[in-house]
Amino acid sequence: MKIFDISRPLSHELAPWPGDVGFEFKLNGRIPEGSSVNLGMISMSLHNGSHADARFHFEQDGSTMDEAQLATYLGPALVVDLSRKFRDGAMPRIEIDDLRECGDELRAAPRLLVKTNVWEDSHVFPEEIPTIAPDVPPWLQARGLKLLGLDLPSVDEIRSKD
Description:
The protein is α/β, with parallel strands linked by helices. Helices cover 10% and strands 15% of the residues. It is globular and about 60 Å long.
């Protein structure tokens, strides 16, 4: 089994969502200064780096992450490389036809990770990203998919209010 680590490294240089706070790590106690151990503190927005959105993020009465089932995020996944679609800087939507090419592999995978390589420089927040066509999530769900992961900060347009 091959394990895919899709997380973005957290650092103060990671660009936050526009208007949000960035990542900060601070040492509160240090061994050389008399502390028995090094003590650290992390401060960050829930929308920094690699993350999962709880339903509460977009539904007022939605469930929060502490109610999420960890099993949803662990297990076999299909990785689909769509980076060729975005090489020229165009930002078309990710469509069903892009995923249909996977055939039986997609039917067998309970999780799908989509690689776009659009956000290569994590120090600069992208002004534009590809989005998921509205018919893709129900199409994937009808095929039994439990999880859709992307290398993007959102599945919507950056300025979307929907």
